Each structure stands twice: as C-alpha cells, then as structure tokens.
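Appendix C reproduces, verbatim, an entry submitted by the partner laboratory led by Prof. M.T., so that reviewers can inspect both the input and the predicted structure.
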Amino acid sequence: MTNRILVIRFSSVGDIVLTEPIVRTLKTAYPDAEISYLTKAKFLPLLEMFAHLDHRYGWVEDRDSAGVLDTLRQRQFDLVVDLHASIRSARIRSALGVKAVRAKKEWFKRIASVRLNAVAGKPSHALERYLAALKELGIDGKPERPLLQVPEAAQVWWHNRCTGSALVGDYYIIAAGAAHATKRTPESLWVVLDRSIRNRFGIAPILIGSPAEHDYLTRLSERFDEPPAGIVTEEDIGRAAAVVGSASFVVSNDSGLAHLASAVDTPVVALFGPTHPILGFAPLGDHSDFYTTDEYCSPCSLH
C-alpha cells in the first residue's frame, strides 16, 4: 500500500506549475495517501496554490540540505516521483532508498532540435514526460491544464489596491520579462502590439514582472503611445496570480507567467522567438495559444 508520496521538482515557475496535474493524478490514484513536495525554498509560495498537497519542503543548497534530507527520511515515504531528474534529485532518491519513478528529460531530442533546427522527432511536452513516469506505476493520466488556487489574501490585496485607483476596470497583462534575456520580445514589438490591442479592445495593459525587472518595465512603458494602467513587480507569486487571474487576457513571453495564466484560467498567448513550442513548454488549456516567429535558426536556444 502506498501511504506517503514525495514529488520532486526544484525549479522553475513554469516547470513547477506544469507538475500540478501530476499531483492531482496521484491524489486520484492514491486518495488516502499523503502527498509531499520538495522544491527550492524560494518556490514554496507557489506550492501553496496546489490543492492536493499535504506537506511542502524547501531545499536550500549547501545550507540546510542535510537537515531537510533527515526530515524527509523521517517521513518514511513509500514512493518518490522525481520530475526533475537531476544529479541532486538522484542523490535524494538514493538516500531515501524507496521505490521511485522519474521523468525523462529527452535532452538529446531537445539539443538536436536546437542544433539541427529539426522539427522531426520533436520532444514531448513537459507534462507528457511527467505523465510517462506515472505509467510505470500503472497510472494512465491525461494531459490536462494545471489548476491553481489564488490565495484569498492575495485576492484581497489586489482588490484593495485597485479600489479608488486607475486600475479599476478591464485590463490586459503584458508579461514582458523573462529569466533568460533571449526570451524577451523586442521592446518595439510590444509598443506595436499595445497600440493594436488598445485600438481593437479599448483597454490598457498592466505590465507585470519580478522586482528585478521594474526598471526594464518602466523603460518599456515610457515607449508606449499612452501610459499603461499600471506596473506590478511582485516577489509574491500569489499576488502575481491574483493580478493575472483578474485580467481579460495575458500576452507573455515564453516564461512562467504564461503557465501561471493558464493555471488560473485566464486566456493567454505566449510569444516564442528564439525558443520554440516544439521544445515542450507551450501553455496548456482551451484558452491558451502561442505565436512563434519561426526564426531561421528556430529553435535557436533551449532558453
């Protein structure tokens, strides 16, 4: 009998969001089991939006990793589902010494897609790779979109911020930032896109990103024909989800915010430039879509 399950995925926002259907599928297959999740400590707030987790553990490399590992041993897990499949996660699987399954990274297919610009033999979507790991347990899951619950405190925060401000009313999101600079859409294209959306829908954008991207988003906003409805740079992922969840729609780079939008059921279009959806990270759901420029080298890079 499987009583305690540990899921491992250390990073990053989009990849972790895409694991939510796996947690949901495990809960359906093992309704009485406790499900725990191990991720990097900075992503623990994201896991608070997962409905079917019983315990969440944060990993801080080279600081308290031994303490976290001792805690995990004490939990006496029956099963480890390793969705990161790294050297670090392999060490943890070995240390726990219990039954484990792991997702395959398909590195060779992904690297071949970049170096050969090849669409043939394209890699699987990340969620499909995660689901393939569950098949080793006899679980046949479906590639459904992630479902996240926006924290109530974050919803109240956003409501209070909007009340009596220029943020009242409909707006759309421009998620112009990205962890990798190669994923950023040129500023001139955002200007043209905003002009077109305002002319067609009559709504202004909110620019959203991390605190480190505030100066970049401010500079971008100054290039628009008209000021945006606002700029939101929040470290709190729950607050970011509240902003995204109240938007009419989202236009995003190939970044975690595209997956966050899908998970809170806000229509989203993800823009792929040097990267490409064939690498397996397009947002999921009936209200999600993507646009790729199909550059001559596309996919030009993994990130």
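The chain has two domains: 4-135, 152-292. Additional entries are available on request from the coordinating office.
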